[in-house]
Amino acid sequence: MPLTTYWLEHAWLGTHAEPGVALDVSADGRIAAVRTGVDTPPPGAAVLRGFTIPGLANAHSHAFHRALRGTVQVGSGTFWTWREVMYGVAQRLTPDSYFALARAVYAEMALAGITAVGEFHYLHHAPGGTPYDDPNAMGEALIAAAREAGIRITLLDTAYLSSGFGAAPEQHQLRFSDGTAETWAERVSALEDREGVRVGAAIHSVRAVPADQLSTVARWAEERRAPLHVHLSEQTAENEACHAAHGVTPTRLLADHGVLGPRTTGVHNTHMTDADIALVGSTSTGTCMCPTTERDLADGIGPAVALQKAGSPLSLGSDSHAVIDLLEEARAMELNERLRTHIRGHWTAAALLRAASADGHAALGWEDAGALEPGALADFTTIALDSVRTAGPVPRLAPETAVFAATAADVRHVVVGGRTVVEDGAHVSVPDPAAALTAAIAALRS
Ligand SMILES: [Zn+2]
Description:
Blueprint: E1 3-12, E2 17-26, E3 31-35, E4 46-54, E5 56-61, H1 79-92, H2 95-111, E6 114-121, H3 137-149, E7 152-159, H4 181-189, E8 197-203, H5 211-224, E9 228-232, H6 236-246, H7 250-256, E10 264-268, H8 274-282, E11 286-289, H9 291-296, H10 304-310, E12 314-316, H11 326-341, H12 349-356, H13 358-363, E13 380-383, H14 393-397, E14 411-416, E15 419-423, E16 426-427, H15 433-445
Parallel strand pairs: 1-4, 5-6, 6-7, 7-8, 8-9, 9-10, 10-11, 11-12
Antiparallel strand pairs: 1-2, 2-3, 4-13, 13-14, 14-15, 15-16
The structure holds zinc ion (ZN).
């Protein structure tokens, strides 16, 4: 089988950075061999100067929220006032305009070194709730967008049935609803995994799926052995409403209906009791932290340290896309804890990279990505060590510390499944992602 060889100036091998590594990639898009101690590039090898890490996994995305960036930073408000603006954008999207927007957003992700996205997708139907001719037209638009942008996608097709604990959806939520979890499951069952694509499930929240229908979604995910994500305790108001409706916390409610488990990820997990944390940990349910969104929306700081100690693997997501920068998400998790505890060093750079890659991929059903090792998918990202942000002797001695200083702008090269997606900081198949973003967002406003 033909091989492509890459020579990596510095490579992250899971526990340490290794200088001079040759990576052989086979024609099936997987890593065939990792050779260390290769001081100079072998003849014919593609040379990647800088620090090469496994591709980054953005475990929580709502692509259309990117259209809000810049428009929601004036004036005051809360998560709930922000949500009204977000609903306004949601009303205008069609399968074509969503494809154009998502293609540009996913290209922005590729430029940030992201090789897999978990798209938490609930914008299913035409305005008013009428299904499209293909009831999965919006989901297919997202899949096509990811393919054009060159990244993997896990479409976390989301059940969203209620405006709150059984109440009928409001006008702008009609697009989200399939009516019942049974009809949600029927629609989603028509979606198939394919090259670069995984289909997973999501429960929007305990607000949006009535308690007696939670197990239908959980069972669908169990039968498909698919990832299952759920927004969990992002807001104290959700906890209070859940208590009023059911007398328990959202975490307890999910546990009682079979939602928690090792293939499940709670997104945010911000406002949790000690018992909630113990439940999430003891069931090996994952936690997806979205620190830039959580701070943007004034949500609060989630108990990531306690959750991880209890047994919950951590992943990271850019969620509302206030910024798209997984390196920033990773360090923000650590820096938030420093602010809260007045103590430094909760996670090492290695642990942050693990959340940003291996554990993020696992949360999205890509267990064979997130490591530079033989047999793994050949998904990797090279970060410059000679930019104004990363230059200096220390980064070359301990390149993993780049996670504390590098930004998305330092990503130089991205390979997904052995295919180059970003070369010298430019997207290969989307010529001008900034122009594409401008055009796609302007089209929604006209
Ligand atoms: Zn979200």
